[in-house]
Amino acid sequence: MNSQTNLFGLIGHPVHHSLSPEFQNKLLNLFDINAAYLAFDIEKDQFENIKTTMKTLNIKGLNVTVPYKESIIPFLDKIDDSAKRIGAVNTIENINGQLIGYNTDVLGFVKMLKELDVDLDRHKVVVLGAGGAAKAIVFALEKLGVVDIMLYNRTIENADRLLENFNFDTKQTLSLQDFQIENDMLIINTTSIGLNESESPVAINKNVINTVLIDIIYNPFETKLIKDAKDHGIYAVNGLPMLIYQGIESFVIWHKEISNPFYYYDNLYDDILRKLVD
Ligand code: ATR
Question: Which of 115, 133, 154, 193 has most Cβ atoms within 10 angstroms of its Cβ?
Fold first, then answer.
């Protein structure tokens, strides 16, 4: 580090469990960029100072996490179209004092789905949960051309409100309790229920074929939902790839000189994954 070192970081509350500092600094090292990435735990009563702080200290970019992804919006000078539609920002770029907001969760999810090679035309698409994460994922699914969607949530009104803003040929909102596992489903769990290792948002109680499940939780690495799914013949994965890909997308926004990190560094994903899981 020297007088030319640029500062990047993460804001949220709490942030001490975040993998982003390790991950972003690893990327900075790989590409030999003179910058550092730190985690800032911001108390709610200090949050209003974020714009001035970022501009005064010339912080070049920030990731935004819970609980500020929505409340950051009024502090920004510009917001990209996806982030506007979702109503949540997880990445800020500071260009000469102009603060621009993006949502890279969408691209992170799209990239993960592409890697899984799921044929969306051959699956019934089911989303569990209707919070902020669900919104980004439903937006991604709409962008990918999904025509029918089923959204299961504890509170049906939240599910209805979420789907109001999206265009699908058929959209059903249902209670989590009424979920039944079937063949040929693509299930994406966005609820926070699996954070507790003994809990699962839905019961999986019969064997099925050609069903794929993504639980966006990655800590615990295998939620009860993933374990139950695997026990019943379902291909099930956690949300670590989405986390890594959204982080790489943020990195690309900030470090445009490296327009496609995968092109320059073939093993990028595996390298980061190994580092995080070790
Ligand atoms: P995030 O922004 O991370 O998606 P969130 O906005 O708090 O988090 O959303 C959490 C989701 O998990 C919601 O769908 C919530 O359901 P409600 O809309 O009914 O609140 C769901 N959720 C959280 N805890 C739950 C629980 N114990 N049982 C059922 N659903 C739960």
Answer: 133
